[in-house]
Amino acid sequence: MTSAPVPMPDRRLVDLSVVRRLVASQFPQWADLPVRPVDTSGWDNQTFRLGDRMSIRLPTAREYALAVDKEHRWLPVLAPQLPLPIPVPLVKGEPGEDFAFPWSIYEWIDGEPAGAATVGDMVAFAGRLAAFLVALRHVDPAGGPGPGLHNWFRGGPLEVYDADTRRAVEALDGHVPRDEVLAVWQAALDARWDGRPVWFHGDVSLDNVLVRDGEVGAVIDFGTCGVGDPACDLAIAWRQLSGASREVFRAGIGVDPGTWARGRGWALWKALIDYAAGTAAAKRVIDEILADHSGPRSPFAAA
Going from the N-terminus, what domains does the chain have, and what CATH number goes with each? Predict the structure, then answer.
């Protein structure tokens, strides 16, 4: 059954004066510290530097603000059980000073966003990232947050994005091979998950990995984390890995073929949405997904 389209949030951005007033009114002990924007702020949250050792995250919409309490509850639990640093919240702010949502101050983590210019060896990078995700999956999931609006239904069935995906395919008629794309999507839907819920990050991408001296140094931005099906964490395999790095990631992550097929589905949904919105680079991701689906290793490939 086709789902209803998932609505986009109403994002609202703020300027530095609002951030400074929030800090001064709620955490006066830090009022004299400089506040400045970071180079890459993100979509779900605006991020600012507070002094040299802290960062501020302000949700950009009501839906994204749902993750604040989750992060304060669970990131201190996850952090000591993982092999790489993750953000740990220090204090939670409340709405005020013309800002409508709860917000957070975190410890600052040094590093540069992962990318071609900062990663020394992408194959080694893929292996270490896979090991981190395996460790995350082994944290006790009891009581953890299941799929919902707080993480845009990551960890749940792909059907929630069926309408969005099919609408994008129709919008791209003539620009993508419709039948092949829908075959990959249907294979992902058919590869249903019935496993034990596990922890997942929910938005694994190069932007959310920090690099130090060319190697993975930290994993950040857990706003879409939760407990459920970990297939959503595999999308990076097609979106930002390829060739040997993808194979090392797949070997390291150790998932069954059905989970790999659902991971392709998560990557395909996002790539189709991006391509339909005018992001030309998403076409390469779609081509990578189609090639992987039809390759000899895929038991879900069309006959």
Answer: 16-109 (3.30.200.20), 113-294 (3.90.1200.10)
Exposure on the CB side of residue 86, measured as CA atoms within 13 A? 23
SS3 state of residue 280 = coil
* pLDDT score recorded for residue 290: 98
| 263 token code pair | 């991971």
Give me the pLDDT at residue 296, please: 60
pLDDT in tens, 168-200: 999 999 999 999 999 999 999 999 999 999 999
CA–CA–CA angle 235, 236, 240 (5° rounding): 135
Mean pLDDT value of segment 257-279: 98
Measure the CA–CA gap between 296 and 294, rounded to whole angstroms: 7
Report the DSSP pairing between strands 89-93 and 54-59.
Answer: unpaired
Q: How many residues are listed for the chain in this entry?
A: 303
CA–CA separation, 48 vs 116, rounded Å? 25
Q: How remote is the C-alpha of 298 from its chain's centroid?
A: 25
Alpha-carbon dihedral sign for residues 224, 227, 228, 233: positive
The identity of residue 237, as a single letter, is A
Euclidean distance between CA atoms 60 and 99, whole angstroms: 10
As given in the structure block, the two tokens for residue 203 are 């938005």
* HSE value, Cβ hemisphere, 13 Å, CA-based, for 240: 20
Q: Which residues, at least 6 apart from 98, have a Cβ–Cβ distance to it below 8 Å?
A: 14, 18, 21
pLDDT in tens, 93-125: 999 999 999 999 999 999 999 999 999 999 999
